[in-house]
Inverse folding.
């Protein structure tokens, strides 16, 4: 069955094979398909509504990739992710308030700032283990909201602030794309930008976890004591992961602000943090590809349910309609049920389901 | 002076409610090692069940509360059996996130059954007050303190003297040894959930009583009980009570005096004070005031 | 080794794909312009207008906690247009169809839903929520779409893309205080208790303007946070300051906690509450006797069912016919008034023979005064956001027997301070 010496997806003969990104011709083919999808989707799905859904999902994917490094790969649960999105969004708003910076500047600046704040908070938060960390990071969301409401010069206080950061580099403006004489809409341009950044972030995350420090954090997740024994500096590793995870969140926050052009303190709530946790649970804890699947799933599900709510019996689709449950209640309940169901039935998430489908076809007609 | 006493009294009454919620957290944590985010959901369900028993069959208030506690307890045990029992032996975060998921399900169930609009619980306390030495105290708050004290006393007596209580303590101390003695861990866990749900019902009733509105989002108050639980130490029932009272007092006194003492700290610092106090205490004592220090052996 | 060629191949296929499907580019965004130059004749087809039917979107909370407000708003919208359609429609011939979207009171959902409907509608009849409206504004400006905010923030007054109605929160606060001063004199202690958000800040601006105008001091300003369960500290400070009148900006859940705490602490000032603090449920709660003695609610127009006002008479008749289950509700009334405002706008646009987006914006600039038949005071819509909002409010006292629990205390209360208030543009 195996071609002698050639790479295989099921069996690794060398260490280098196991950590290679695109091991087989098939995986390279898959990559090509993804690139093709990236190019084609905004041209096939020209409906602005579905493009906005996909764009918000892409932004969540970037934030969730960061959280997965911390939670999925290092085993530290944080409910404070929303706070760092806020930092990123306000940073982007602040640096572009008086000067027209290109995205190549405001995005890294916002990312860096959120990362620094994470690095500053990390040593205190990560002193605590397990449950204590969960609750302390929950406190971070509330304290952050208090700051966002009161630091009026930067955040605009309760009324929020407009975000002038534009997705442009020189004459190339993704919000107003004009390529080869063809004009593209704002949503199309943003789709290409956001999902290119998702790919970039995913690649970065993948590269982090397959390097030496990446293996170290996974050792910490699996057994921190054992990791310490084999010479991994647990504290230092936890802090840099926390900083990087915050930086990813900051980047997502900056994009969120720039895309929406306005942010207010009402948005960086505990619910947002929980949503990211849900994304990595549904997608698959500790997988990169799964995180992106999860972001798409959680991001698009409410819209899909609403789209088809007319054909679900008992659902109330508008005021005064019959039906015992409103679409919102149904969506929230399904959101909760999904978290529960995935943890109970498929703890490795969508990624595992995907893998199973893949294995089925690869080993076809044999089953195991 | 009487203002201070008034404020402290209101703070203690608030703290007693937090203590009831926090005690629910602790009970479940001791039995299973899981932080129960669904406690807020149980609180809302309990309050609405009380409302339903008052409105529907028109039970007397005390009876309605007891009936609601019984129903909530059954629900709590049922939820544990269906959603959490299968997770035994799996990473703790899985169970925690399941409780987060349950929070959403419970809140939306309440909204679907009783609607999103404000309800009035229909308790007998209303706006009544008593005055002692120039200090006005709400009857509702007195009852809250009384009920909380009674619930806590009953719980501690149960833990201290009943066979089940001893079994619960044994399981908390050493699950394997307890199992070897023939104590069913599953039964203990289910009972813990039932107790937590009953405590949450009392808390929910005291939060929604008087003139306060009964709304499906009431469960968010449980988030403020997390600091109370952490402050006391997660596995200490006594710590939960102390933590609850401290958080309630801090919140109330901050609301009363912040404008004189810390005017620069922004508006409504009182609502974030529980978290600030929690973080400060954890910096000094990473396992809370009365929590068991985790021993790490190599 | 072979890596470069492989990446090159991917890049090449990418460029190819771009070229092949370039026709899939945006063309649906530019439909807003021009009305084919048809002047004063029948308006040409435009987005959301197929020659006979005009489509309007609502982005309102139809589920979740804020549905309590969103549902009656939409019901008010619908009742107005049901009646109008029964009479023939806009200008007697164009029927209006509503496209209801649930924005869940969230900024990002609002943006998504807006993008779903924007190419199918002529205008957005209703956007519920201050933050959602602010988040939508940049897109509205870009798409040249007119929208009706379902909130009374002063921000909206100067915004050329918005068609606000009613007296802004600032006026509510100023007029309420003015009415108190007129009744009780200046020799009193005035205080505020406001929600720590945009709505509370607007109320504070109104109180400040009135205080300046009347030459009085505000003794203390207290704030509370949404869903705070203990406001003893703040109420004590109000009591200590000896407040005779407290301007209150809150929503019902928090108002219940605040009034309950005040009643228990035997603190009984004159509460001058902004309209959103009230809900009919209070009339049946244990608070009712306390509120009857202490509270005014500052709202608009007249008492529900006051048939001496022509607008109210018609609204009650329409409600009985098209929304028979509707309870007395200020939000229903607001939605109904929005219907009237947009009908005026659409008729202006039809008169000019242009129902395109540009046509609607132009019509909004020339709209002039819209009279709401006594349901709310007239609002003047001038060119480029130069507008004069409704200036007067009505003061209600609490009466459990009155419809919705509100009994008219004073009508057409207009403080001169309302003219002094400078509205800021949206952030």
């Amino acid at each position: 069955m195996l071609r002698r010496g050639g790479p295989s997806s099921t069996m690794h003969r060398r260490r280098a094979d196991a950590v290679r990104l695109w091991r087989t011709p098939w995986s390279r083919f898959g990559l090509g398909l993804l690139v093709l999808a990236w190019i084609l989707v905004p041209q096939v799905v020209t409906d602005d509504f579905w493009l906005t859904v996909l764009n918000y999902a892409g932004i969540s994917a970037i934030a969730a990739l960061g959280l997965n490094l911390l939670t999925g790969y290092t085993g530290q649960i944080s409910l404070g992710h929303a706070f760092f999105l806020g930092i990123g969004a306000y940073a982007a708003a602040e640096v572009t308030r008086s000067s027209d910076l290109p995205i190549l500047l405001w995005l890294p600046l916002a990312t860096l700032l959120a990362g620094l704040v994470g690095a500053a908070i990390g040593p205190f938060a990560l002193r605590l283990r397990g449950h204590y960390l969960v609750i302390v990071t929950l406190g971070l969301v509330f304290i952050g909201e208090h700051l966002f409401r009161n630091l009026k010069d930067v955040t605009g206080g309760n009324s929020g602030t407009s975000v002038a950061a534009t997705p442009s580099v020189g004459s190339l403006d993704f919000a107003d794309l004009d390529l080869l004489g063809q004009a593209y809409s704002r949503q199309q341009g943003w789709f290409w930008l956001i999902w290119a950044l998702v790919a970039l972030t995913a690649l970065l995350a993948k590269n982090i976890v397959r390097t030496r420090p990446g293996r170290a954090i996974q050792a910490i997740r699996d057994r921190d004591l054992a990791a310490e024994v084999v010479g991994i500096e647990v504290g230092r590793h936890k802090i840099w992961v926390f900083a990087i995870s915050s930086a990813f969140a900051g980047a997502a926050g900056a994009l969120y602000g720039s895309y929406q052009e306005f942010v207010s303190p009402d948005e960086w709530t505990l619910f947002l943090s929980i949503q990211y946790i849900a994304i990595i649970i549904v997608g698959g804890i500790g997988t990169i590809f799964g995180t992106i699947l999860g972001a798409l799933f959680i991001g698009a599900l409410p819209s899909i349910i609403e789209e088809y709510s007319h054909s679900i019996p008992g659902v109330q689709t508008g005021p005064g309609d019959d039906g015992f449950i409103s679409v919102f209640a149904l969506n929230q309940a399904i959101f909760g049920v999904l978290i529960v169901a995935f943890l109970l039935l498929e703890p490795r998430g969508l990624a595992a389901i995907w893998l199973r489908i893949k294995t089925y076809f690869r080993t076809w007609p044999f089953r195991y | 002076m009487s203002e201070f006493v008034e404020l402290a009294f209101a703070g203690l009454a608030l703290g007693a409610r937090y203590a009831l919620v926090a005690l629910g957290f602790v009970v479940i944590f001791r039995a299973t090692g899981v932080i129960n985010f669904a406690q807020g959901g149980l609180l809302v369900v309990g309050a609405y069940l009380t409302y339903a028993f008052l409105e529907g069959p028109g039970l007397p208030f005390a009876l309605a509360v007891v009936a609601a506690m019984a129903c909530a307890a059954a629900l709590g045990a049922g939820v544990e059996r269906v959603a959490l029992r299968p997770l035994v032996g799996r990473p703790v975060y899985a169970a925690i996130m399941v409780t987060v998921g349950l929070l959403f399900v419970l809140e939306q169930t309440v909204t679907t059954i009783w609607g999103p609009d404000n309800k009035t619980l229909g308790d007998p306390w209303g706006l009544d007050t008593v005055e002692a030495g120039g200090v006005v105290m709400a009857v509702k708050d007195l009852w809250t303190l009384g009920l909380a004290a009674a619930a806590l006393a009953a719980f501690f007596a149960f833990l201290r003297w009943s066979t089940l209580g001893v079994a619960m303590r044994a399981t908390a101390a050493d699950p394997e040894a307890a199992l070897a003695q023939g104590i069913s861990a599953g039964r203990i866990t289910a009972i813990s959930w039932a107790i937590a749900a009953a405590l949450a019902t009392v808390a929910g009733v005291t939060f929604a009583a008087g003139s306060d509105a009964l709304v499906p989002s009431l469960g968010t108050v449980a988030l403020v009980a997390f600091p109370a639980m952490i402050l006391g130490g997660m596995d200490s029932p006594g710590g939960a009570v102390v933590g609850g009272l401290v958080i309630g007092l801090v919140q109330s006194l901050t609301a009363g005096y912040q404008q004189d003492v810390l005017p620069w700290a922004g508006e409504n610092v009182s609502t974030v004070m529980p978290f600030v106090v929690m973080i400060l205490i954890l910096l000094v004592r990473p396992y809370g005031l009365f929590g068991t220090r985790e021993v790490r052996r190599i | 080794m072979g890596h470069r060629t492989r990446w090159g191949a991917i890049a090449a296929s990418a460029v190819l794909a771009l070229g092949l499907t370039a026709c899939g580019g945006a063309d649906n965004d530019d439909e807003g312009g021009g009305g084919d130059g048809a002047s004063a004749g029948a308006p040409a087809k435009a987005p959301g207008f197929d020659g006979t039917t005009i489509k309007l979107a609502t982005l309102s909370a139809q589920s979740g906690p804020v549905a309590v407000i969103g549902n009656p708003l939409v019901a008010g919208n619908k009742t107005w247009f049901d009646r109008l359609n029964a009479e023939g429609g806009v200008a007697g011939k164009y029927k209006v169809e509503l496209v209801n979207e649930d924005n869940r009171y969230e900024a990002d959902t609002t943006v998504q839903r807006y993008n779903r409907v924007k190419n199918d509608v002529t205008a957005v009849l209703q956007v519920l929520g201050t933050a959602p409206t602010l988040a939508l504004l940049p897109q509205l400006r870009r798409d040249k779409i007119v929208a009706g905010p379902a909130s009374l923030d002063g921000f909206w007054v100067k915004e050329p893309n918005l068609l606000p109605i009613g007296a802004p929160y600032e006026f509510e606060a100023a007029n309420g205080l003015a009415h108190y001063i007129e009744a009780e004199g200046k020799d009193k202690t005035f205080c505020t208790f406001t929600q720590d958000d945009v709505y509370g800040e607007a109320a504070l601006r109104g109180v400040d303007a009135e205080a300046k105008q009347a030459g009085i001091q505000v003794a203390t300003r207290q704030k509370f946070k949404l869903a705070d369960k203990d406001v003893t500290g703040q109420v004590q400070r109000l009591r200590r300051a000896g407040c005779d009148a407290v301007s209150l900006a809150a929503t019902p859940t928090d108002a219940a906690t605040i009034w309950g705490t005040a009643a228990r602490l035997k603190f009984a000032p004159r509460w001058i509450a902004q309209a959103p603090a009230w809900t009919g449920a209070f009339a049946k709660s244990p608070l009712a006797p306390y509120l009857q003695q202490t509270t005014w609610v500052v709202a608009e127009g007249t008492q529900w069912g006051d048939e001496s006002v022509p607008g109210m008479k018609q609204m009650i008749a329409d409600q009985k016919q098209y929304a028979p289950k509707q309870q007395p509700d200020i939000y229903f009334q607001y939605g109904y008034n929005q219907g009237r405002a947009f009908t005026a706008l659409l008729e202006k646009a039809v008169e000019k023979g242009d129902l395109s987006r540009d046509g609607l914006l132009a019509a909004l600039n020339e709209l002039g005064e819209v009279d709401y038949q006594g349901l709310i005071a007239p609002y003047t819509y001038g060119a480029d956001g130069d507008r004069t909002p409704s200036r007067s409010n009505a003061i209600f006292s609490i009466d459990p027997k009155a419809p919705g629990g509100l009994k008219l205390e004073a009508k057409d209360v207009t403080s001169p301070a309302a003219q002094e208030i400078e509205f800021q543009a949206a952030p």
